[in-house]
């Protein structure tokens, strides 16, 4: 059992404070969706968990390990995977090279090679196109590659920033299937989404961030969920 625990997180960009109190947890075999309006601080929260933004207050722990002050590569090796918004693959590099780069983030290269073969089985289109530059893949295929690139590092937690953004509806369904599969395989998934319907279809737990603070936290089976989310979106600072 793995738990990513974010408590009272404060972070931002230099002197600009964007997040003042983000609190949420993600358990293995479950999906937590982090919702909130544009600019609420969702991406900034993920960046701070990955180690890309400095944590000014609060803690990020993965099981017993406090990661709040460790550099990004150590967090990746500890099991924190991060798929940034907008398909961050290297377009001029082949599919294969992108996956190889993903294995470098993990703690075990041999395991990374095994996982790469697993990714080719799981996403046959990536196997077919392994020698092609990633830029030649469709948007949906690039999103799958970005997810596969994170998975070959063998994360225990996977953070996905708006994985459905800009994709055709049929592809969005495939992304949802991948998320369901990750949950079934025991990963802890932290999903940032603008698309509330997509998030609710995927999530076990829902957290709403409003102006950098967690203002709602509940279970997806809460009968009052949509109203509660609506109220949380409208809550003033
Ligand atoms: P969105 O869905 O629009 O990305 P979000 O909740 O993910 O929303 P963030 O991207 O975390 O929001 O942005 C929160 C605030 O931080 C915004 O006001 C934004 O302008 C600011 N911000 C984001 N990136 C930077 C940056 N590199 N430098 C300075 N300020 C930034």
TrEMBL record:
Signal peptide: none annotated. Keywords: Amino-acid transport, ATP-binding, Nucleotide-binding, Transport. Gene3D superfamilies: P-loop containing nucleotide triphosphate hydrolases. CDD domains: ABC_TM1139_LivF_branched. PANTHER family: HIGH-AFFINITY BRANCHED-CHAIN AMINO ACID TRANSPORT ATP-BINDING PROTEIN (PTHR43820:SF5), HIGH-AFFINITY BRANCHED-CHAIN AMINO ACID TRANSPORT ATP-BINDING PROTEIN LIVF (PTHR43820). Belongs to the ABC transporter superfamily. InterPro entries: AAA+_ATPase, ABC_transporter-like_ATP-bd, ABC_transporter-like_CS, BCAA_Transport_ATP-bd_LivF, P-loop_NTPase. One of its GO terms (biological process) is L-amino acid transport. It holds the Pfam family ABC_tran. This is ABC transporter ATP-binding protein. Residues 4-236 form the ABC transporter domain. It comes from Actinomadura barringtoniae. GO terms for molecular function: ATP binding; ATP hydrolysis activity; branched-chain amino acid transmembrane transporter activity. It comes from the Bacteria.
């Amino acid at each position: 059992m793995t738990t990513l625990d974010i408590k009272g997180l404060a972070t931002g960009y230099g002197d600009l404070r964007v997040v003042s109190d983000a609190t949420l947890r993600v358990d293995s075999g479950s999906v937590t969706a982090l919702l909130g309006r544009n600019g609420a601080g969702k991406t900034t929260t993920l960046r701070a968990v990955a180690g890309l933004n400095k944590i000014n207050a609060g803690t990020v722990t993965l099981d017993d390990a406090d990661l709040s002050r460790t550099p990004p590569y150590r967090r990746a090796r500890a099991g924190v995977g991060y798929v940034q918004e907008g398909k961050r693959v290297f377009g001029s590099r082949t599919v294969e090279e992108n996956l190889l780069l993903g294995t470098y983030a993990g703690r075990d290269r041999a395991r990374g090679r095994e996982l790469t073969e697993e990714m080719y089985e799981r996403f046959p289109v990536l196997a077919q196109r392994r020698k092609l530059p990633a830029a030649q893949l469709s948007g949906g295929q690039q999103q799958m590659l970005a997810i596969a690139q994170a998975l070959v590092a063998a994360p225990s937690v996977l953070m996905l920033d708006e994985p459905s953004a800009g994709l055709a509806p049929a592809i969005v369904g495939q992304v949802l299937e991948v998320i369901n599969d990750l949950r079934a395989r025991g990963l802890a998934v932290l999903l940032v989404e603008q698309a509330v319907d997509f998030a609710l279809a995927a999530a076990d737990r829902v957290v709403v961030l409003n102006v950098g603070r967690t203002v709602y936290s509940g279970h997806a089976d809460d009968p009052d969920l949509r109203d509660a989310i609506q109220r949380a979106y409208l809550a003033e600072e």
